[in-house]
């Protein structure tokens, strides 16, 4: 089976981190195809970045589906463009936030999401509520710019460790969810260090994508995720007209 993993920001080095985490947990029968968006922000931190990352994300998912992908993963913890992608695509599309929260709910009653900055914490908190986990999950920000995770001299990992320590002590967290795809390579190390489950959304999404493919399930096209109605789009978004983007 083939799974497409899309990094919806334009930082290729982060895609490499994401791809390694995805391939580390994928089954022997799974081919992981990891791609970087060709247009949009270098990192997604807040609502503005998120909105402008969606067109590039949709282009990559449409191209991946045409190339034979059987499922797609959006590797941003904001679940950037998830609803739009599900409406556009005929293959299942999974967001790493929803995937990680689902996995955490199987193994802990109380858990904490540790994300990057305050402007990212607020959207993630909204997703926690949307996915029905508000009574079980708390969201914390470690004051880490996303791109600082790429810099070993930035002190980002030390800040992350400190926030996890506070989550265990103050929230009584029974598990930790890493709230950024750029943290994917740290999950096992932090799990060993803190002696509790640490969940990376990329890995969680890969296993859920494999399950959906094996079960022969995809997104319902009745109701909210029905294919977009045919209509013309103008200006720079002309190529995103329903039916056009999927065919290019």
UniProtKB/TrEMBL annotation:
Domain of life: Bacteria
Family classification: Belongs to the HyuE racemase family.
Name of the protein this chain belongs to: Aspartate/glutamate racemase family protein
Naturally occurring in which organism (per UniProt): Mesorhizobium caraganae
């Amino acid at each position: 089976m083939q799974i497409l993993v899309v990094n919806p920001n334009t930082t290729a080095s982060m895609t490499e981190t994401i791809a390694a985490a995805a391939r580390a947990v994928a089954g022997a029968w799974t081919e992981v195809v990891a791609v970087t968006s060709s247009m949009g922000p270098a990192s997604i931190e807040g609502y503005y970045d998120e909105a402008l990352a969606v067109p590039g994300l949709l282009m990559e998912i449409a191209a991946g589906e045409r190339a034979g992908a059987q499922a797609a993963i959006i590797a941003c913890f904001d679940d950037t463009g998830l609803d739009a992608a599900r409406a556009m695509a005929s293959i299942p599309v999974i967001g790493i936030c929803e995937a990680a929260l689902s996995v955490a709910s199987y193994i802990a009653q109380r858990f904490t999401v540790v994300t990057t900055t305050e402007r990212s914490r607020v959207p993630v908190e909204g997703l926690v509520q949307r996915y029905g986990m508000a009574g079980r999950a708390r969201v914390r920000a470690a004051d880490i710019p996303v791109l600082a995770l790429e810099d070993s001299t930035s002190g980002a990992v030390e800040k992350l460790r400190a926030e996890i320590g506070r989550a265990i002590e103050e929230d009584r967290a029974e598990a930790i969810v890493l709230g950024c795809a750029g943290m994917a390579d740290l999950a096992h190390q932090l799990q060993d260090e803190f002696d509790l489950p640490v969940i990376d959304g990329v890995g969680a999404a890969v296993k859920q994508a494999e399950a959906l493919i094996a079960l022969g399930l995809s997104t319902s096209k009745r109701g909210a995720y029905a294919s977009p109605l045919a209509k013309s789009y103008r200006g720079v978004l002309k190529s995103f007209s329903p039916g056009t983007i999927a065919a290019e």
